[in-house]
Design a protein that fits this description.
Elements lengths: L6 H49 L8 H9 L23
């Protein structure tokens, strides 16, 4: 049971392992890094969308000044009628 540790043989076995599986280990490392980046970006987008949704509040009540301004508007029936010739085309871009 008295065995000495040979560092050269341990280094050689580790070198042999990485020499044999270097391509697979590289692909696993790259796939893990891409997955980590994707989840990080998704979480950042999710946090920013939650912040935008919580900061947007829509007021459903008008103040009295706005109500008075809307009441002061006149309907189209009260305005003078526009003379449009019946036999000509009307240009919608000219007022």
């Amino acid at each position: 049971m008295n065995q000495s540790l040979d560092l050269a043989s341990i280094g050689k076995s580790i070198s042999n392992f990485f020499g044999r599986f270097h391509a697979i280990l590289f692909l696993i490392l790259i796939a893990g890094a891409i997955t980590y980046c994707m989840f990080s970006i998704i979480s950042i987008i999710d946090l920013s969308s939650r912040a935008d949704a919580s900061s947007k509040t829509i007021s459903s009540s008008f103040d009295q000044k706005t109500i008075e301004r809307v009441d002061q508007l006149e309907s189209r029936d009260k305005n003078t009628p526009i003379d449009i010739p019946t036999n000509q085309r009307v240009n919608p871009f000219v007022d």
